[in-house]
Structures are given as C-alpha cells and as structure tokens.
Design a protein that fits this description.
By secondary structure, this protein is of the alpha/beta class. It has a single domain, classed as Alpha/Beta hydrolase fold, catalytic domain (Rossmann fold, 3-Layer(aba) Sandwich), CATH 3.40.50. Helices cover 35% and strands 15% of the residues. An eight-stranded mixed β-sheet has the order 2-3-5-4-6-7-9-10, sandwiched between helices. α9 links the parallel β9 and β10. The N and C termini lie far apart (50 Å).
C-alpha cells in the first residue's frame, strides 16, 4: 500500500502538508484567523457525538456559515482560515463522526452518506439556527451537494469546493492527471501497484510528486500545524480506507460506486457557488461542467492553488466568500 491512505484523507480533506515533505513555498493563513474557538460543544448524532466549534456571534446581523471538512476521515484543522470571517458572522466548524475530536466508534453501520449529511441538521438544531450558509470541500463538497439537493428551507446559500461528485468522474480526473506527471513518477506509481513493489521510500516519493502537484502546493501555516498536532488520535485512517481505499487511483471501498451527478439538477443554481483550484485534482474544467449542470450555478477558479485552496490561497478564498455570503444574507431569518 502506498502512503495515500494517510495523505489523501488529510490532504484531500484540505489539511495542507501534514505528513508530507515541506512544499516549495508558504502562504501564511490570514492574521485574523482565530485558532481558539469562542464556543465548543459535543452534539449528539446517530452513532455518537461530534465536536463542534463556533467563532463569532450566532446572534449577529449576518447569517452563520458552517463548512464541512473532507476525507472521509479528515478534520476541521485546515478550515481555520475561515474563522477570519467571524468579524462579520458566526463560523461553525466541526469534525464528522470517527474524525478529529469527535467520537470514534469504528462502527461500519455509521459509514453511510445520508448519516453524514444528517449531522448538519443535528448541529443546526443544537445551536438553534433558523437559516445558514452551508459549504464543504472535497468529500465535504459531496455532503454539501447532498444537503443542497434536499433544498432545505434553512439553506441561504451553498458553497461547493472541489467536490467528489461521482467516483467515476473523480477516478477519470486522477488517471488523466497522472499521465501529466514526469515519466519517472508515472513509472514508479505503476510499479507500486504491482505485486512486486519497489522500496516504500520510492513509492512515497512518487505519491508526493502527485500530491504536491495537484493537491497542496504550499506548506500549511504553523498555527494550523500546532492546532492539528494537539488533537487526539482518531479513527480517520480507518474511515478513509474503508470508505475509499488504499490509493488515489483505485476506490474499492464503500464509495466505489458513489454517483451524485443526478443531484446537480436538484440544486438551486442561483444560490450555489462551485470553486476549484487552478491545479486541482478535481480538475477545474470538470467542476465547471458540474456547475453548469446545476442550473448554471456560479463557478470560480482559484488561481495559483491546487486542491487545498484554504492552504494554498486562503486570502483569495476569503475575498471570494465575503461578497458571496453578504449577497444572500438578506433573506428573512
């Protein structure tokens, strides 16, 4: 097995360079980022309880934003740059069951897409929120689409970043991007999938070549690394392997036949924003095509970023989200 089990669940979750060699450059998170929560709580959900943190006031004049991490099996650490938005609205981050600071029952009965989507309404009910903005990246984007397709009355706007919309389309993008790597890395990746594998260090180097090209191009902020390191051990690796699989290029897990493409036409395109990084492993052209199918939802490409947009280009993402969120704050609360 290559090191994609850990790397994809963390980096695909948008968790920056955790576990990887330092990237070529560093883009510090916004100075206004709030590492410490203003409030935190455990919320009961089907299967256990999940960790939730809030920055900013839930009683303020602007609707709150909740944002979902990726994986499956990531955690909310790399989403901390979003807390810079807490100067104008509440920002809610949380860890899904079996991830981060949440309970980790390791029960396969919990590893169902509808159950993960159901965590959102449990949080909304616990916090007494009438309307909110909902967003998510990668696997979190999957959950955002699933939630938005239900057209809940509580939804003010939807933000979908670099989503896994179907396993079929994701693997097609990965296969295409893999052919664009230098020949030596392509050959090593192929060899690492064979019965007789090269040394682990060679497979790791080839994995990192893909990850540093299409997933994260920047070293994560030191404050985020310290915050992540302080988290308890979780079941994220198990969750990732069981739901996805051992490598970026194969998905034998529970999501092997996942297909949410039919959900795109059920989204309210006027209130939906898709975005992807310029070098994203969820290729911008693929994500833009999904946005077009969602009744012409908006699409924005984050220049200079790979998949982990909040690590590579946090200021650009915040500059995009501020006016977007403000535009849909006017709905009755």
């Amino acid at each position: 097995m290559t090191n994609f089990q850990l790397s994809r669940r963390t980096v695909l979750a948008g968790l920056g360079a955790c576990g990887l060699a330092p990237a070529a450059r560093a883009a510090p998170a916004p100075a206004a980022m709030r590492v410490a929560p203003d409030r935190e709580l455990m919320v009961p959900v089907e299967g256990g309880s999940i960790y939730v943190r809030i920055n900013g006031s839930l009683e303020g004049p602007h609707l709150p934003l909740i944002y979902m991490h990726g994986g499956p099996g990531g955690n909310h650490a790399s989403l901390l740059p979003l807390t810079a938005l807490a100067d104008e609205r509440a920002v809610i981050l949380y860890d899904q069951l079996d991830s981060g600071r949440s309970d980790a029952p390791h029960d396969p009965a919990n590893w169902r897409v509808p159950r993960f989507v159901g965590e959102l309404e449990a949080i909304r009910s616990a916090l007494g929120i009438a309307r909110w903005h909902v967003g998510g990246g990668s696997w979190g984007g999957t959950l955002a689409i699933e939630y938005g397709a239900r057209q809940p009355a509580a939804l003010a706007s939807l933000i979908v970043q670099s989503p896994l919309v179907s396993t079929r389309s994701w693997l097609a993008d990965a296969a295409r991007l893999r052919t664009q790597l230098p020949a030596q890395w392509q050959a090593t990746l192929a060899a690492c999938e064979a019965a007789e594998k090269p040394a682990a260090v060679q497979c790791s180097a080839a994995d990192d070549a893909y990850l540093h090209t299409y997933v994260v191009r920047t070293a994560s902020d030191s404050r985020i690394r310290a915050y992540r390191a302080a988290a308890p051990r979780d079941a994220g690796s198990t969750l990732y392997e069981k739901m996805w699989g051992p490598t970026e290029f194969r998905a034998p897990g529970l999501l092997h036949d996942y297909d949410g493409e039919a959900l795109l036409t059920r989204l309210d395109g006027k209130r939906t924003l898709f975005m992807a990084g310029e070098y994203d492993e969820a290729r911008p052209s693929t994500v833009a095509a999904f946005a077009a199918r969602a009744h012409g939802a908006a699409f924005r490409e984050i220049r200079g970023s790979a998949h982990s947009v909040l690590t590579d280009q946090p200021d650009a993402v915040l500059a995009l989200l501020r006016p977007w969120l403000a535009r849909f704050d006017t709905a009755a609360r």
